[in-house]
């Protein structure tokens, strides 16, 4: 038997009330109930990082969180990073440094990097690499992504 | 067709990508992001648990009775065969299954869970057959036949199957006299290598949605490198006319070859034909992506090479057994590419090549970035390294002495066009400080350097074509329509750049029409083979030149001037004679009014262009000889400086350097990005990746045990260089660079390992365990 | 010439005959959030065999997709009393609640100061975003032989706080593991926290993990070493080792401790201890590595880890740091 849960949460600043089945992950809720398709489904097993979102300020694999667990949570997806068309520096640097190719890992990569710079405004290259180890990219070889995060550090 | 002779300013600059804003905001639409509403059905696949078996009976009655199930199809519904070069595959298995994971039935239901449950309820009765798991055994007369009906299969005229065996293609090259040449050799090296199957691992798994209208017209939305090839193959197979089938292909979240041709896309179409009005969505789980998607074929390669006492290459014998898997509809052409490129970029007077594509009961082999060249060069790069050592010559000097050059006659009898391979070798040698034996960072490390060279030609039918058209807009911008796909490589950006440079527009005045849609987009064979910049680029250049000509003729008429005195600079038509100026705004659509309201000149400007190589010839089936086997070769070199940890066998890459001759780098930053990403994919395949198959069952079908490189595995120092020896028929001299950077990687790393340890491993991945145990067994460790 | 299938690969694998084929999504279940440990316990007893606990879910959800676990009920322990506690008491030690994600443990100043070994081990688990959900107690209750934090928890004297229908009980971690995925937990019992005594004076440790990638992978072999000055031993030190991925449960070969206690610590005795460590383990061949390689790695990594710890112990003794702690 499956249970349903009415949850209230904030997504990208907006309060949402949703009725979710127990087996719905945060990933599926964001993509299919809220149309936030910037959150990508790459493995559904917590390994690739494409679905990474901020939950209560910290990055999580949204495929590894039940929607029912999110009652009262605050979630930010890639769609919530820029405001009124104004890109944040990380997005600008990812463009400027050429850190985007197919773009499928980009949303999760941005969220992980955003969270890193929030907790550590001046990370070393090692710290950048370690923070992004859970975000797989097959196109870029990571070089330009790491460069973009370095260039986003506000000196 | 008049194209400005001087190099436009935009060529060789690196404007930002045109696709990137949506990709950093989450707005870019990929196939799974399209919303289909409540009518959508979800499809899942019943798969074979056996590597080789006859299907005796399929009972779908229990599954049909499950509430929520709408359609079930099996091989009985679609007995037709499908395939790119050899029609040897069924959409769903008909009488026989040939690999673990082969589709046996498809179910569409109101949600994925019900579809999955229905699959579990389908009962299939099998009679097990003896399987084949080895390509050399498979090619032998002892092996059971996997495709007994191969003789009836439709096949392209340059593929040579051997009915009555498991050999689905045998490519032969015979040049000079190998047997006589061995006698003159001062040094000979003989070695065998085994390169295992690997998976492409795009971060976006395969996904396709199909819908049939009341009138029988079919629409397919797919994450696709090949909307036109898919339209063609699927329509033909299912008896639909090409124009009644429409393929829409949004952004692709990584392809690397696995979204070329038709892999899984025919399945949702086959289901949707029986679910009229319902869109039917099929998306692979990551695990399915690993074990049912086309793989890079395994290869067993036996090489014998010899040179004279001065280190001049005299002969090569190359025998390749490709593990083509259960179907080789695409793989047969990899075998051919391996054959006509079988010497690597070396000038060798006497060559004997046999390249066999062999059916096995393994996953289906298909296109993978490099199209056989990573596997081939894994062998060639390492035997050349040993041959140089055996004759006592510096390895870089040996490469330079024997590498092929413009004017040389290659293995298939084709005269090589000018290439900059020598310069690539120099750049890499310098980059890794070749010739200087450097100290390891500690006593428990071994240090070594390795270098290898490679080449690759676009592998495709001789007449693979491209087309483009460019519409001018009221605001003076131009919309570029292409059929080539943006799979991350930057194809749209390069198309925009070529169009802008050719017309005389600023980059920001170009729009790329998308997503690709066979109903509106101009034809493109496939986004594969590193051919877009060159082939599609030509079509765009011609279309842009056509649009430019129309604009200039219109203005020339209005101004009563000569077209030759006019130019378009940053969207303004200027006359060098009268110094008049006119913005493209409005005129390119509405035309130019004649003076005193006496009528109009011109009208909507639409430029069109197409390109197809017309000069590729067939090869003699017995000798592989012919005037021109391919359009061109991109060549290059790669080198590594590494350390190996004696305690664990782990390889640490201190420095990775690569250089390729790209003809002309239209967008240098995009070229470098391809080199970095490609080299890293090569490194990943060299040190981590392998589809571990036991009795046909993949043992590591998830990211937990199929590891790919992460941020922490990237070498500290990576250097990329390009050399520019122009391609005569490339746009502004450009050649492709998408696949090449990963083709010499395994060999170069293998050579570095050898330099550090004296050990030559049979093949990748160069796992710490393999390296360590080999060192241990060789007595290198204390 | 007759071609036959090549001899078995360099590595004999524990073969999976059937293909792992997880569902696209999670199967149906009922998600249960209860108000108290008592209620949760009661629920688990009532639905014995049908219910599973979720804390971070990083293991549970994967196994539910794989169809390895098919619980009818998933009971959330987050919010239950005591599970959110992460506190250090200078007199009694450290308490880590069952719902405290690893990142909170790693970032805690008292953990970094007094239990750096635990922080180091936790930081080696998967990725940053996974560690925002994964918990130390979850890692323990999964009882995977590859669990990265288990060695540190064992060597630091971890003790579990277990809540059951008869109330609370404590169990030392050393007796907790019974096999892969098997523990001494009884039906209805919930591990609410793990507790650590104050570290030994002058203690230091390290966790050396061999994965395929430099970070983020599971351990092919993991070696945890923990050492501290001890006047009761011949060597003046006590050095202990715990091994991951080389037996059905985490191993703590006592012989290593003995060798390094009863003899003067030299390169030779460290090598002897490393050899003993290798001899004490009995790994299997699997897809991540062969038994032969694992044994070799246990020896080499044990030697390196002891050497590192021994170096730290010596420099502390020389600098008189020991007295200050």
Write the layout of secondary structure elements.
The complex is a heterotrimer of chains A (155), B (782) and C (325).
Chain A: E1 4-11, E2 14-21, H1 26-33, E3 52-55, E4 58-61, E5 74-76, H2 89-97, H3 106-119, H4 125-131, H5 143-152
Parallel strand pairs in A: 1-5
Antiparallel strand pairs in A: 1-2, 3-4, 3-5
Chain B: H1 20-25, E1 41-47, E2 53-59, H2 61-64, E3 69-74, E4 81-82, E5 89-90, E6 96-97, E7 103-109, H3 112-121, E8 123-128, H4 135-139, E9 167-175, H5 178-181, E10 187-195, E11 207-212, E12 218-222, H6 227-238, E13 245-249, H7 266-272, E14 280-283, H8 286-291, E15 298-307, E16 313-325, H9 331-340, E17 350-359, H10 373-391, H11 395-402, H12 421-431, E18 445-456, E19 466-472, E20 478-482, H13 491-503, E21 510-512, E22 516-517, H14 532-559, E23 566-569, E24 572-575, E25 581-583, H15 587-590, E26 592-593, E27 600-601, E28 606-611, E29 634-645, E30 651-661, H16 668-687, E31 693-694, E32 697-698, E33 717-723, H17 745-757, H18 768-777
Parallel strand pairs in B: 1-14, 12-13, 16-17, 20-21, 30-33
Antiparallel strand pairs in B: 1-7, 2-6, 2-8, 3-7, 4-5, 9-17, 10-15, 11-12, 11-14, 13-22, 15-16, 18-29, 19-20, 19-28, 23-24, 24-25, 26-27, 29-30, 31-32
Chain C: E1 30-33, H1 37-46, E2 51-54, H2 60-65, E3 73-76, E4 86-89, E5 93-97, H3 102-107, H4 109-114, H5 116-123, H6 128-131, H7 136-142, H8 150-155, E6 159-164, E7 167-172, E8 177-179, E9 182-183, E10 190-196, E11 204-210, E12 221-229, E13 237-244, H9 254-262, H10 267-280, H11 291-319, H12 321-324
Parallel strand pairs in C: 1-3, 2-3
Antiparallel strand pairs in C: 4-5, 5-10, 6-7, 6-10, 8-9, 11-12, 12-13
Helix pairs in contact in C: 9-10, 10-11
């Amino acid at each position: 038997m499956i249970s349903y849960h009415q949850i209230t949460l904030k997504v990208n600043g907006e309060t949402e009330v949703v009725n979710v089945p127990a087996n719905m992950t945060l990933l599926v809720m964001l993509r299919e109930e809220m149309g936030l398709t910037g959150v990508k489904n790459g493995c559904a097993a917590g390994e690739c990082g494409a679905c990474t979102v901020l939950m209560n300020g910290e990055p999580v694999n949204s495929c590894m969180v039940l929607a029912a667990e999110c009652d009262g949570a605050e979630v930010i997806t890639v769609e919530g990073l820029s405001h009124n068309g104004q890109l944040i520096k990380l997005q600008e640097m990812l463009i400027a440094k050429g850190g985007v190719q197919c773009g499928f890992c980009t949303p999760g990569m941005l969220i992980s990097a955003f969270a890193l710079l929030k907790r550590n405004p001046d990370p070393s290259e090692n710290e950048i690499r370690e923070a992004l180890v859970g975000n797989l990219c097959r196109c870029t070889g990571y070089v330009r992504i790491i460069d973009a995060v370095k260039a986003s550090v506000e000196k | 067709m008049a194209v400005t002779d001087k190099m436009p300013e935009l060529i060789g600059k690196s404007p930002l990508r045109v696709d990137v804003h949506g990709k950093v905001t989450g707005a870019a639409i990929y196939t799974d992001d399209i919303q289909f509403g409540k009518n959508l059905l979800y499809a899942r696949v019943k798969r074979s648990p056996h590597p080789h078996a006859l299907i005796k009976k399929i009972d779908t009655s229990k599954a049909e009775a499950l509430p929520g199930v709408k359609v079930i199809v099996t091989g009985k519904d679609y007995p037709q065969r499908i395939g790119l070069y050899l029609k040897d595959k069924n959409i769903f298995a008909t009488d026989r299954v040939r690999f673990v994971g082969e589709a046996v039935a498809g179910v569409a239901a109101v949600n994925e869970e019900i579809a999955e449950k229905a699959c579990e309820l389908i009962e299939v009765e099998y009679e097990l057959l003896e399987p084949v798991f080895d390509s050399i055994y498979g090619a032998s007369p002892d092996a059971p036949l996997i495709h007994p009906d191969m003789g009836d299969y439709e096949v392209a005229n340059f593929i040579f199957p051997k009915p009555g065996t498991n050999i689905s293609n045998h490519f032969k090259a015979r040049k000079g006299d190998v047997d006589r040449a061995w006698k003159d050799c001062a040094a000979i090296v003989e070695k065998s290598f085994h390169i295992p199957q690997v998976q492409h691992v795009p971060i976006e798994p395969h996904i396709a949605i199909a819908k049939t209208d009341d009138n029988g017209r079919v629409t397919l939305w797919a994450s696709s490198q090949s909307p036109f090839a898919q339209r063609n193959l699927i329509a033909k197979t299912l008896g639909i006319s090409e124009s009644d089938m429409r393929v829409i292909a949004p952004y692709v979240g990584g392809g690397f070859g696995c979204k070329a041709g038709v892999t899984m896309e025919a399945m949702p179409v086959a289901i949707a034909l029986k679910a009229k009005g319902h869109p039917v969505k099929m998306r692979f789980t990551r695990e399915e992506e690993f074990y049912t998607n086309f793989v890079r074929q395994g290869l067993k390669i036996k090489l014998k090479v010899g040179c004279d006492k001065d280190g001049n290459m005299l002969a090569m014998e190359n025998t390749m057994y490709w593990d083509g898997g259960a179907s080789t509809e695409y793989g047969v052409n990899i075998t051919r590419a391996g054959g006509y490129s079988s010497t690597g970029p070396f000038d060798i007077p006497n060559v004997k090549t046999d390249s066999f594509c062999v059916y096995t009961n393994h996953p289906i082999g298909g296109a993978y970035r490099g199209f056989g060249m990573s596997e081939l060069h894994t062998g060639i790069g390492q035997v050349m390294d040993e041959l140089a050592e055996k004759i006592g010559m510096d390895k870089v000097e040996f490469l330079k002495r024997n590498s092929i050059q413009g004017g040389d006659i290659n293995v298939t009898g084709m005269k090589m066009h000018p290439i900059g391979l020598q310069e690539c070798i120099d750049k890499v040698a310098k980059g890794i400080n070749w010739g200087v034996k450097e100290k390891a960072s500690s006593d428990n490390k071994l240090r070594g350097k390795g270098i290898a060279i490679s080449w690759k030609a676009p592998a495709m039918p001789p007449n693979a074509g491209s087309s483009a058209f460019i519409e001018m807009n009221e605001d003076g911008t131009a919309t570029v329509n292409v059929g080539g796909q943006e799979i991350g490589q930057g194809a749209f950006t390069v198309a925009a750049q070529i169009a802008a440079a050719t017309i005389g527009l600023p980059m920001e005045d170009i729009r790329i029409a998308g997503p690709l849609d066979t109903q509106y987009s101009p034809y493109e064979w496939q986004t594969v083979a590193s051919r877009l910049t060159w082939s599609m680029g030509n079509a765009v250049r011609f279309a842009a030149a056509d649009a430019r000509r129309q604009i200039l003729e219109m203005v020339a008429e209005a101004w009563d001037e000569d077209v030759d005195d006019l130019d378009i600079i940053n969207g303004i038509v200027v006359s060098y004679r009268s110094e008049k100026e006119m913005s493209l705004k409005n005129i390119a659509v509405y035309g130019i009014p004649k003076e005193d309201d006496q009528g109009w000149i011109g009208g909507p400007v639409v430029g069109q262009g197409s390109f197809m190589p017309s000069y590729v010839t067939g090869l003699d089936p017995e000798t592989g000889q012919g005037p021109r086997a391919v359009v061109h070769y991109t060549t290059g070199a790669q080198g590594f400086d590494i350390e190996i940890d004696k305690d664990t066998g782990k390889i640490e890459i201190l420095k990775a350097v690569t250089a390729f001759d790209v003809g002309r780098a239209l967008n240098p930053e995009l070229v470098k990005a391809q080199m970095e990403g490609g080299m890293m994919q090569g490194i990943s395949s060299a040190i981590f990746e392998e589809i571990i198959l036991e009795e046909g069952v993949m043992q590591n079908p998830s990211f937990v045990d199929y590891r790919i490189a992460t941020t922490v595995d990237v070498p500290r120092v990576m250097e990329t260089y390009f050399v520019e020896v122009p391609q005569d028929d490339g746009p502004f001299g450009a050649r492709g660079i998408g696949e090449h950077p990963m083709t010499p990687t395994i060999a170069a790393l293998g050579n570095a390992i050898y330099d550090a340890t004296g050990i030559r491993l049979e093949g990748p991945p160069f796992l710490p365990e393999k390296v360590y145990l080999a060192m241990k067994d060789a007595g290198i460790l204390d | 010439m007759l071609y036959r299938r090549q001899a078995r690969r360099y590595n004999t694998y524990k073969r999976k005959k059937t293909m792992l084929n997880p569902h696209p999504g999670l199967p149906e279940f009922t998600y249960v959030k209860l108000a108290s440990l008592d209620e949760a316990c009661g629920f688990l007893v009532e639905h014995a065999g049908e219910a599973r606990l979720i804390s971070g879910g990083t293991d549970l959800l994967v196994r539910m997709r794989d169809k390895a676990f098919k619980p009818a009920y998933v009971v959330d322990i987050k919010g239950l009393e005591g599970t959110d506690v992460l506190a250090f008491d200078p007199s009694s030690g450290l308490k880590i609640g069952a719902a405290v994600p690893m990142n909170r443990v790693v970032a805690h100043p008292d953990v970094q100061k007094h239990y750096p070994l635990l922080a180091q081990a936790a930081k080696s688990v998967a990725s940053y975003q996974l560690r925002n959900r994964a918990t130390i107690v979850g890692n323990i209750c999964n009882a995977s032989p590859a669990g990265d934090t288990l060695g540190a928890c064992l060597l630091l004297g971890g003790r579990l706080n277990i809540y059951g229908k008869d109330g609370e009980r404590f169990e030392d971690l050393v007796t907790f593991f019974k096999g892969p995925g098997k523990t001494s937990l009884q039906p209805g019992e919930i591990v609410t926290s793990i507790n650590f005594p104050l570290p030994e004076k002058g203690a230091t440790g390290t966790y050396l993990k061999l994965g395929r990638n430099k970070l983020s992978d599971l351990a092919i072999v993991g070696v945890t070493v923990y050492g501290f000055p001890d006047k009761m031993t011949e060597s003046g030190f006590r050095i202990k080792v715990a091994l991951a991925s080389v037996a059905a449960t985490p191993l703590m070969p006592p012989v290593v401790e003995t060798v390094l206690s009863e003899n003067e610590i030299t390169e030779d005795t460290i090598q002897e201890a490393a050899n003993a460590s290798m001899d004490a383990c009995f790994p299997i061949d699997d897809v991540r590595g062969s038994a032969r390689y694992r044994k070799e790695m246990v020896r080499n990594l044990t030697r390196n880890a002891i050497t590192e710890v021994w170096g730290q112990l010596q420099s502390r003794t020389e600098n008189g740091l020991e007295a200050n702690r």
